[in-house]
Every structure is written in structure tokens, then in C-alpha cells.
Amino acid sequence: MQEPLLDLRKVRYFVAVAERLHFGRAALDLRISQPALSRQVRQLEHDLGTDLFVRTSREVALTPAGEQLLHDGHQLLAAAHRARERARRAGGQDRLTVGFMLGVRLDPLLEAFGGAHPEAAVRLERLRWWNHGEAPRDGRVDVGVIRLPVRSAEGLRMLTLGQERLVAAVPAEHPLAGRPSVPITAFADEPVLRYADAGPAWNAFWTVDPRPDGTRPAAGPEVRDMEEILAYVRAGSGVAFLPETVSAAFARPHIAYVPVSGVPAGTVVLAWPVARPTELTRAFVDTVRAFTQP
């Protein structure tokens, strides 16, 4: 009896769940219903003849088979992306997919690339703090203009593009609002909003946990987007530490952004896959390197 072929769509669904260890959140990001996602993963397990997850009422964990497929799945999806792009190029369609995070300075890079390669089409894809490292590694995007840290730098090359000062988002009536700069120690008693589904390193850096003196802030609510951040901050549920470039795009009358001293600056990088980057990817990297490091 012939074994069923491995369905890349099911692999993509599996990887989304495996990265988050949460079916509901993966379903939201994939824009499908949770029952449909569960059925697809169950079918993949049936096709493979093994369980990929250990499911309990409280948590989801990967089995050894699941750990292996997560590793191989990233490579499979990246290979599929490269094959798709090679087919497009053979058909006369050159396209580069550029991932980006909220607030990064993308326009100068795209203008420089467009000037050097006017024949290339560019597609943009928004990346979030829970998938910004995985997307360029597994081929969802060719390159990513992202912030550090990532869950894992394995399989990625990176070029540093710049630094970003951290600011604290506080209610406009907060005692610290309006100051030109505030030391991190001034937030010792403030709950800090946490980034849902982010890797431990991301939350550690962007919540400044632990603090330079070794203390740890109280944990505020988890957030999934800027609108949630702004709503919680306005309600006084906690403060949020953000890149200054993001705060500039979200000016609100009831929110104040205060520069924070005594903490490292954030880092923005260009990330692309180690394994066989496309010609357009190499061209984009070369253009950005020449633009940022003349």
C-alpha cells in the first residue's frame, strides 16, 4: 500500500501550533477555525502514523516525533518556498517577499533596492514578535527587517541596521509623563505588560526582566497587538516598554511615551536564510549593506 504524500499545508499548520504550543493562538494567526486546525493536525498524525503532540486539558507539548518534524518542517517549508520562487523566475516573474516589524524604517531600503533592481516585484508581509525569526528561516519571507532577540538564530544570517531607544508607554496623567528621560529604577513598582506567545528572550528584553539590579517587575496582562497595549496602558493596568520608532507611529492624547535610561537599546537587523538564499535575496542584502554601510 502506497504511503500518503506529506501535505505541506498540514506541515505549515503543524509548525504554527508547534511554535506556539497553543491551538487557539495558531488558529487565529492562520485565520482558520480551531476545530479545522485540529482536524488537519490529526490527519497529519494519521498520515505519519505517530503522535506529534501530547495533549492535556491544561497544555500542549511536543512528542519526540513532533520535535523532529518541527526541525524538518522548517527546512521543508523553506525548500518549498525556494522551489516556488525558482519556478516564478523561470516563468519571467521576479518577486521578493520582505517581512517587516511594526515601526522599522523600511522605505529607504525599498527605494534603494527598487533603484538598483527596477525589474523586481516586492511583496511585503507584516511580522510579529512570535514569528519574526521563524519567517525568514522557513521561507515565509525571503528577508526580514526585524528586531532582536529571536527564539533561535540557527539557520539565519543577520546584518545590523541600527539601534532604537526604549520608551515607556504610560497614561498621560502618570507622574512620570512629560519627563525628558526616566531611569528604569523609577518603574520598580509598576506592572509591565508582557508579550503573548513571544519567546523567553523577547519578553526578557522588552519587559526589562530582570532589571539591571537583579530585581524582577510585577507581571501585567499579556498583549497581542498595539491596540491592546494602548488600551491596557490607558486603563492603568501596566506600563509597556516599546521601541521609540513604534511610539512615534501611535501618538494618542491619553498616552505618554517617556524615554528610559539605564537599559540597552533595541537592535534592528536584516535577517535571511543561510540555506540557499535566492538571487533576489542576495541582491537585496547587497543593496542594503551598501546603503547602510557605505
UniProtKB/TrEMBL annotation:
Pfam families: HTH_1, LysR_substrate. One of its GO terms (cellular component) is protein-DNA complex. One of its GO terms (molecular function) is DNA binding. CDD domains: PBP2_LTTR_aromatics_like (cd08414). PANTHER family: HCA OPERON TRANSCRIPTIONAL ACTIVATOR HCAR, TRANSCRIPTIONAL DUAL REGULATOR HCAR-RELATED. Belongs to the LysR transcriptional regulatory family. This is Transcriptional regulator, LysR family. It comes from Actinacidiphila rubida.
